[in-house]
């Protein structure tokens, strides 16, 4: 199984205790890494690569989104790869950062009628794939990335977040 060194920071928001976030994140991201290695042939460094997770609120993620993406609004998740990477290439020792906003995540989970933890799991997988160079700007990229998300989430016992795919 692919191993990760996950650093967590709970900065703002009404998040579950850090120990719960660490356990959930470890389970989810290790499963995603394992999937990329075994199913997608993703090369992985010998030492566990590091990534950081920042759990924050809408106000903080809005400022980050405005500064880095020019969008002055909150969003659910942002990913910042440490190094540019093409999907399928060897990542470096530091994968990057994933930032998640509590209020947006909670609101979306309610709108989707999904448990908070299930939606958080999806956003962690989504953000993690961005660290490996996957994107959803172009239709073909989106189809590939969403397909990977669906297959990883199915392995974690969750349904297709896009509602129209059957996992392989």
From TrEMBL:
EC annotation from Swiss-Prot or TrEMBL: 3.1.-.-
GO MF, one annotated term: RNA endonuclease activity
Signal peptide segment: none
Enzyme class: hydrolase
A Pfam family that the UniProt record links to this protein: YbeY
Residues that, per the record, bind Zn(2+): 126, 130, 136
GO annotation, biological process: rRNA processing
Domain of life: Bacteria
Cell compartment(s), UniProt: Cytoplasm
Record text on cofactor binding: Binds 1 zinc ion.
Protein keywords: Cytoplasm, Endonuclease, Hydrolase, Metal-binding, Nuclease, Ribosome biogenesis, rRNA processing, Zinc
HAMAP family: Endoribonucl_YbeY (MF_00009)
Known function: Single strand-specific metallo-endoribonuclease involved in late-stage 70S ribosome quality control and in maturation of the 3' terminus of the 16S rRNA.
Protein name as annotated: Endoribonuclease YbeY
Organism encoding this protein: Sinorhizobium saheli
Lineage: Bacteria, Pseudomonadati, Pseudomonadota, Alphaproteobacteria, Hyphomicrobiales
């Amino acid at each position: 199984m692919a191993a990760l060194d996950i650093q967590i920071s709970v900065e703002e928001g009404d998040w579950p205790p850090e120990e719960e976030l660490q356990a959930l994140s470890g389970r989810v991201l290790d499963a995603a890494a394992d999937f990329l290695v075994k199913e997608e042939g993703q090369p992985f460094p010998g030492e566990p690569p590091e990534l950081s997770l920042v759990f924050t609120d809408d106000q903080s993620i809005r400022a980050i989104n405005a500064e880095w993406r020019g969008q002055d609004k909150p969003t659910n998740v942002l990913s910042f790869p440490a190094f540019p990477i093409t999907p399928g290439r060897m990542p470096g020792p530091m994968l990057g950062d994933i930032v998640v906003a509590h209020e947006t995540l909670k609101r979306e989970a309610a709108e989707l009628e999904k448990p908070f933890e299930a939606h958080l799991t999806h956003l962690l997988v989504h953000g993690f794939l961005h660290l490996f160079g996957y994107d959803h700007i172009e239709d073909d990229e989106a189809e590939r990335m969403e397909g990977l998300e669906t297959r990883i989430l199915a392995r974690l016992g969750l349904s297709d977040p896009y509602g129209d795919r059957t996992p392989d």
